[in-house]
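pinned: reference chain
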Amino acid sequence: METTQVLISGGGPVGLMLALELNHQGVDAILLERNPQTTRHPKMDITNGRSMELFRRLGLAEKLRDVAVPDDHPVSVIWCTKLAGEELARFDYPSVAETHKALLEANDGTMALEPGMRVSQILLEPVLKDWLDAHAQHVTTMFGWALESFEEDDEGVTATVRHSETDETQEIRCAYLAGCDGAGSVTRRALGIHINNITVQHFLDSGDREDFHDEPWGEERPDAPRPEFRYMIHWTSKDLELFERFGTAWHIQSPEGWSIISQNDVDTWTIHIPPKCYPNITEADPKEILFSVLGCTFDCTINVSNAWNPRLGIADSYGAGRVWLAGDSTHQVIPTGGYGMNTGMGDALALGWALAANVHGWGGPGLLEAYEIERRHVGARNRWASARHSSIRAKIVMACPENLHATGDAADQARGEIADLIRELGNLENHAWGIEWGYRYDASPVICHGDGEPPGYEWEHYEPSSWPGGRAPNLFLREDQSLYDLLGAGFTLLNLDAVPGEALQEAAASVGMPLRVLSLSDDKLRELYDYPLILIRPDQHIAWRGRQQPGSSDEARAIINRVRGV
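pinned: its C-alpha cells
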C-alpha cells in the first residue's frame, strides 16, 4: 500500500495550489485527478490580485503572466445592443502594466501586491502541473486516477482510488485527505455534508442588505424560483476585427442577457446565453445560435457547447478530523465577479499551511477547526457578492426595452435610457477590492484579536490596517522588493522599532513553531502598521500585534499556543 502525508482529490486549480503549498511547506502529498490531462474546457478568465500575490509567494507569478493576455492590453467591459449593433455603455480599466505602475507610485498599502491577470484556466492549469512535475520535491501527481471511497480512523485515512480508463484500483494510506474535487465532490458526499443553495431572487428578497452574508448557516429557500440555466458556446475565429469593433474588449455584453468573454484577445471567445435569446437552444446548431444572437455571421470553429446551471451554494461544513474540503466542493458562485477559483485559491493556502503545521507536529487541531470558521465566512461573503453582482445584471435584463433593435426616435430614446441605467448601476463586480483582498477573520479562534473598534470592513473597498485577522498590508521597500517577499514560509515577527521580541521567539522555539524575525526601519511601514510588533501567519494574515513584547514567558506561550491552534 502506498503511503503519503496528504492525499489530494482533484487536480483543478485549487488542488494544484494546495499541492504547491504543501510542497512549499515540505509536506509529502499525492494529487489525484480523474481526467488524464488538465482541463480542455473554458473556465475562469480572471485571476485577481490576491491570487496573484499567492502565486508570487510561490515564485510562479511571472510564469503565469507569460501565458496570460499581454500586460499592455486594455481591460474594457462593453455593453452593446448586438455585436453587429451599437455600443451602449463601457467601463474601462487600466492594463496590467498601468496597474503595476500605479501601485508602485501609490505604495500606501491600499492595493494588492500584484495586478490581476486575464488568463483562461486552460492555460493556467498546465503551468502549475508542469512545475509540480518538474520541480516539486514532495508532491506526486496521478492524473487519470480518481478517489472512489475512503475510511477514516484515529491515525489516518485509507483511500481506494481507481484508474479512469483501466478500472485498476489501489489503496493509498494518508494522514489527511483533502477534497478539492469540485461541485460534485465525492469527498463531500461521503462525509454527508449538505450544500445550502440560494438564488439571486433570495438575495433580492433580502432587500439588498449589507449583512446578508453574515447569515452564517441560513436555510435553503424552497419557495424561491430555480435559477434559469445558461447556454455556453466556446469558439475560435480569426475575425478579430469583428470582435474588436468596439475596441479591444475583455467582456462584451447585452441587456438581452448574453455575455462574451475574450479568452486571449486573439482568436478564442466564450459566450453565455440565457435560453430566452434562442428557442430550443439546447437542441439547436451552436453556430446558428451564435449568428442569431450576435446579429452577424463569421467564420468560426465551435470547440465546446453545453448548458450549465448557475449556483449560489455553500457547504454546511468544510470537513472534520482528518478529512477537509476546499474550493468548489465547499462553495459555488455565479461567475460574475470571478469569485469561484479565486476564493478557492485562498482556501488552498489556508488549508495547506494548517495541514502542514499538523503534519510537522507544531500545530494543533484547532488550526483545522479555525480553517472552517475563517474560510466559510469568506465563502458566505463572496457568495453574497456574487448574488449582488448577478442581481445588477438581472435588473438590466428586466429593464431591456422591447424596441432595443428598432429604428426611430422612440427606439433611440429607449437605448439611451437603458444605457443610462447601465452606467448608473455601475460595474462593481470588477473592482470590489474589499471582497478580493480585504477579507478578515474576525471570528477566528486562532487570532489574538485587538482591543477597541475595528477599522471599516466593507466589501466594496479595502482599508489597510494592522487589525489582527486581516491581511497584512503590503508596501514596496524598493521597486523590485516588497514586504511580502521577505516573509517566511512559517510565521514572521515583523519588528518595526527595534522593540525586544525574544519572549515570542523563545516560546515559538520551545514548541518547534517556525518563526522568522524581520527587523525593518521604514517610516511608511511604521505609519501604516502603527504597532511596532506584528506577528504574521504563513497566509499573510496578522495573528497578533503589540506595542511591546509579552510581559512574561507565560503570556508569550499563551499567544503562541493560540495562534498555532493548541
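why pinned: The first strand starts at residue 2 and ends at 9. Residues 210-219 have pLDDT under 50 and may be disordered.
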